Amino acid sequence: MPLRLLPDTLVNRIAAGEVVERPASAVKELVENSLDAGATRIDIRLHEGGRAFLSVTDDGCGLSPDDLVLAVQRHATSKLPDDDLVRVASLGFRGEALPSIGAVALLTLTSRVAGTDGGWEIAVEGGRVSAPRPAAHPPGTRVAVRDLFFATPARLKFLKAPHTERGHVVDVIKRLAMAAPGVGFALADERRDILRYPPAAGDLFDARAERLAAVLGRDFADNAVPVAAEREGLRLGGLAGLPTLNRPTPQMQFLFVNGRPVRDRLLLGAVRGAYRDVLASDRHPMLALFLEVPPEEVDVNVHPAKTEVRFRDSGLVRGLIVGALRQALAAAGHRASSHVGQAALGAARPEMPASAPLSGAFRPARVPPGLAERTRDLQAPLGDLRTPPAAPPPARETPDAANHPLGAARAQVHGTYIIAQTATGVLIVDQHAAHERVVQEQLRAALADGGVARQGLLLPEVVELDETAAERVAARADDLGRLGLVVEPFGRGAVVVREVPALLGDTDVKGLVRDLADELADLDAAIGLEERLGEVCATMACHGSVRAGRRLNESEMNALLRQMESTPRTGQCGHGRPTYVELRLTDIERLFGRR
Question: DSSP characters for 113-177?
Fold first, then answer.
């Protein structure tokens, strides 16, 4: 078959297949054009999820008639002012996507430059471009797209239901709104307003925090820690959710490079690495991170939709993200997300079963404020009032709850949970999970200071394993020694333990070594234990922490609370579960109708 050049209309339709996958793809390209035009307000409208109609209107700088003609030509762009493919400093003003959209849809482009007498309009129908004509329009630009993919009907079969396509558009607008907090966004369909974000005020950090709270919810804003770091020309900012604020999928992780929303595997991997020792492998944190990189240090053209990027120094980027996130989480100290306590209160709040009949069913009454106090005057007196009251027991030396963030211990229940009173409420502490995190952080700190203190066993412990596991443990003997665990080969299928970390105290040595053997099976032989320090320290800490069922006296409980306050990351155990639940007094009072 002879070679031939494809006609421009077909070339544009092929390009549209790469750039415009669905209505959300077109919206993304058009909104990015508006942002590059300096818009402060962007309005998006949809019909049938964007398939029948979509429009993007902005108050940006506008286009002249000559620029309108150029904007719908292939390869017209403003993001390469000096023809340098390496230095891409914008999202791609106008051009680029417009001819692709016009090749598969009915496109109308109306624009007016501020200060001119009137606007101009140009239309593209299946690749055919009309001449510019005068049109009434305020300063800015409006792009309207009708009958998306009418010129390529086969692609219509791949579109989902209108509500599904609308959901993809919502996701795109949320990401772009987070990237540009100073810009107002509005999204509506034929029935209702879907999103409305007013421009955020203040400096970049405050504006970004305000926008993130609007997009991700106040629960995220209240349970996230600020992230700020800089290294060798790279800057990282944003908010990272506490480990106890997690999700089963990474859909609530928002990553931006130079203001561009991306879903890059390197960045997602760095986030997993940073949370590795505070979150279970099947859970994912909530966060929004903004990375600023010199344009020459990043390639944004490795993916047609610009959702992936390539860094010149990927190690530097990964190190910056991992280090900044770990530092931010450590600075959070003993904080745990507040939604844990709210969930506990929700579970405790009495509710009428949905299937209960209207008559005869139990209905928890709403007690008016102050009624509980007034009923005390009507109650019968307790005991014989003529009997003098017994002398109160002598006061005990207990910490003042108001002087400590985690309060003072008042009781232990079921041999597992510590009840502590704070200045504003009550804490329920899981003693095993809390002490496990304390020991884990102590092991990490000791290793960073030069080595973990050891204690020799009076009688060395021989641990029998399968032959492969024994060889695996023996091969890591030097690394384990730096962690305070001294092991040696002991024939086939066994190792002998001579010393253990002093922090672990009286521990189950055989159980510890067997668990470490399983842990080491997941490690690459070329990776030192320092690379996976969190998992190894967590395994060792689990065997050296206070077990559930162990009775603690008041001094021991308060000592644990004070250790939690002074140790980083104690708001959650190594699997991301909370180490304590806080119940505020005001919420408890609502349970009993006092508020």
Answer: -TTSS-EEEEEEETTEEPPPEEE---SEEEEEEESTTTT-HHHHTT---HHHHHHHHHHHHHHHH
